[in-house]
Amino acid sequence: MQPYREALQRFHDLSTGDTAAMLAKENALIGLTRLVQCYTENGLDFDSLALFALPDFTFTRNEYRWNAGFSYGCILWLPNQTTPIIPLQFRPNCCGTIVVRTPEWHEDQHHEIFNRLPEVLRSFDGVDYGDFTRSNHFLAVLRDDTSGETYLLFHGSFAAVKEGHQKGVGLYIEKTSYWNDRIRGLSDNQDFKYLIGADAQYYYEVYQAHERFTMSLRERIMAALVPKQDVVFHRVHEGFSTMNIVLLGAYVDTAPFQCPIMLSAEVNLPLINVSRSLGDIAGLPAYRPYYVSPHGGGYMLPNIESAARSDKVRGKGFTLTSKNTHSTYYCSDIINLPYSYRTDVAEIWCRKHGAGAVAQSLRPLTYLK
Q1: In the structure, how many helices (H) and strands (E) does the chain have?
Q2: For 134-161, how does the pLDDT look when each residue is reduced to its tens digit (9 = 90+)?
Q3: Whole-structure pTM value
């Protein structure tokens, strides 16, 4: 069977199916096809290779990741075998979210915390304030109006993971030369880069050290900001769950769990209880041991009825068609696509797919970006 057809059979669509999700699917199938070729060239079995697109499935504005065929809001299952392969350009960076509940809060306290945040971040080795200002990283203060309790949410990653620090070499291959002699490429596409065997195993072990480091950092940062607090959630959504489960904006566990789904600041943030297995949701018994959730809303393409890759602008880019005027837009690269955030992902995941239920609805008091 041709690699693309193999990839199609391994794509499991639980997405919204909107324009952004369709664009993301087209791109993800490129990445899956390259993985099929990768396993085939190395004479390895790939029967268990699979990708699950969740309701936040969308494009990524990280051009390096996108161009390699990795979309966002999904989970990639790699074959679990004695000769492991790790694709490198999905760029695992240990990005995660921590939520704490604080019993004591006064209305002006968020100003104090926001003013102290730069100083707190700079007080830890391996952290730069720029880590917080990049991308969609933020700190939020939220209120449960039913209980009156206040919560803080911190979302972010750290550049030291990408470039390397005392906990290990960097994970981004364009930011460190350590992996250069170990990297392989496809016979017909040297731009698709991967590690195999002992090199892949070591890369995963380096990732684990970075994950422990970043988990500790987020907890220490929150403890410095709010000494009296209880951690109610803390997980990574961009990296690995296990060596063969790649997280691209998702959470995975082998038991039911609770997690936040980060949406736009103008709507409440839901904490959901995930209680139905992925196997039951997707109708695939092999995945019944796993419980999963989207981590956020994901980008949507506002007022766009169709979007496709195009070579009409400097040989690359995208063609977009407006819903309202049916006019055509040309966009030169993924970074400049128009976007807004979906706000209905928790409802789709819990009601449409029956994955669980919303346990709490947290009203945003203030966000710091």
Answers
A1: 9, 23
A2: 777 899 999 999 999 999 999 999 988 9
A3: 0.95
